[in-house]
Structures are given as C-alpha cells and as structure tokens.
Amino acid sequence: MSPSAIPPRAAAAAAGPTPTKFTLPDLVSHCGFKLRINRHRKQVTSETKRWLFQGDNLVGKARDRYHGLKAGLLTAMCYPDAGAPQLRVCNDYLTYLFHLDNLSDDMDNYGTTTTADVVLNSLYHPYSYRCPARVGRMTRDFYKRMLPTASRGCQQRFIETFDFFFQSVTQQAIDRASGVIPDLESYVALRRDTSGCKPCWALIEYANNLDIPDEVMDHPVLRDLGEAANDLVTWSNDIFSYNVEQSKGDTHNMIPVVMHERGLDLQAAVDFVGELCKQTIDRFTHARASLPSWGPEIDRDVQVYADGLVSWMVGSLHWSFETERYFGKEGRAVKQSQVVHLLPRRESA
C-alpha cells in the first residue's frame, strides 16, 4: 500500500492539548527475522575505539557519546558473518558515518559541500589525494583497507551511493536553513539517501566477499529488496529519533512531515509511519520470494546479500533500544513499555 492509500486519522495538532508522550509501534514483533551477533564484536569495537580516538580532541562529552552510541553492537548485528578484518572496516565506517551525521546536523550547504569534496576525493584517489583534514585521513584509511578484497562493482556502488548521501544532506541543509518542511513524496526520495544506508548495502557485498554482477544488482527485484530494507531502517529511525530531534527543532523527520501534510496529531502520525514500516517488512518478504534465478553460484551470493539486508533490518531495530542515541539510558525500558515521554524544547531550537 502506498502512503496515500492509508486513510488519514482525524486530527490536527492544534486542536487539542500539547502531548507529553506517545506510544511506539511494535516493529520488533512484526520483524520476525532472527537476530544474530558477530563473534568478533568486542575485538573490533576496541580496535575502532583506538582508531577513532588517536591523536584527537574527542574528549569529555564527545567520548561519552561514542560509548553510548554502541556502534560496535550495531555493526556486529548487521554483519554477523563477516571476518574480523571486514567487520573492522564496517565498524570504522559506521562509527565515522555517525560522526559525519552529527557534523552535518550543524552544517550549512557550504559546509556539507566542502566535506563532500574532501571525502569523495579521498575515495576516488585514496593513494594520491592529500588533504590534512581529519575526515579525509579517516576516509582514506578505512577505504584502503577495504580495497584489496572488495569487488569492482562493490567499490563503485560504495562511492556512488556515498556521493548521493552528500548531495542529499546538502539539500537537507538548504531546507533546514529555509525552514521548509517537504511534502511526503519529496521527503521519502531524499531520506533514502540521507539515511546513509546505500553505502552500507555495498558493505554487505564487501563483508561477505561477494562479487555479484552489475546487471544482477540492477535487477528490479533486487533493487526493490534494497529499497524496502532502506525504508524500514530509515522510517523506523525517524520514529525512534523523533523525540530528540523535536527537542532541537529539527523537522527533517517523517513524523513532522506527515503531521504537516495530513493534519495529524503526534500519535496519529507515529501510527501512520509505523504502519508504513510494517508494510515495508511485508514488501521485503514478498520481493525476496520473487527473486529469479541466475544460476547456482550467483543465486548463492544473492541469497547471502538478501540475508545481509535482513540482518540490517532486524539488527537496527534491536540496536535502537540498546544505544543511548535515542532514549538515553532508558532504551530497554522503552522497548518494554513502548511509551516515550517528550523532551522539552531546547531554548536554542
């Protein structure tokens, strides 16, 4: 079902008292895939920590945020079969991506464009490009460790989709500066790239030593699988991150988009997005059952890739209640009760 096919619930936020809490949809129960955790988690988490903190000014609250993030757990859940070297690259990248995401929240479009230039030059020319910026050094470091075993198709998909990420966060910065709340269709198109999920899908190929031909990766059913997984991870993240984002006045989130476009109150908007998330799980399951055959060897790799998308879907849902990024230290309690109490707006917002 498309977003427009879901009947809007009566509402307007202005019609009633300001809410103090809302109830989460139970997406974990609806996503009935098995959760698995990579056995190299602790080793890789320690290695990434040393890599991130070396000769750097990440101290105090910045270090506390890193520990509360629990990126190593997310990586271990999303790449459960990766060997230790591959898991390390994936964990370095995800930790670095969260760092970029935090930076982009405070950037204007010039700042995101400048960062994009450094990152993309570092990816396209990892052995010859020279830039003292820390983000460039980090990019070249993890990417040079990825190159020896990543297929050419995987490398190209990683760089291209990372380019899309920067293009979309630049547009997000422009919207934020102008106070624009996009319509739902425009938001969905942009969010599929601001999520940063697409480069992570390329890392599924890398982490599992896959070499899937371009024409197979471009098949409509396989593309639909990736899009459905992206939508679940991204839209559920909008639900989980809404409380923190609303406290900062950030409107790049599907909840305020739906409230604005459809005149829904907060709970109705959360229910609406939750229903969309459940539909993406069903859509993924249907697409996976519709995969064609390309022969035994390619079919095996495609199944491993699809399993990797499954791990991301179920892993990201469970991790969202383990990290302190969305619910502080109350994540497990929120997972049980499904109730989120709204944070007050910050004065700077």
From TrEMBL:
Protein's name in the database: Terpene synthase
Recorded family membership: Belongs to the terpene synthase family.
Required cofactor(s): Mg(2+)
Enzyme Commission designation: 4.2.3.-
Molecular-function GO terms, alphabetical: metal ion binding; terpene synthase activity
Superkingdom: Eukaryota
InterPro entries in UniProt: Isoprenoid_synthase_dom_sf, Terpene_cyclase-like_2
Gene Ontology BP term (one): isoprenoid biosynthetic process
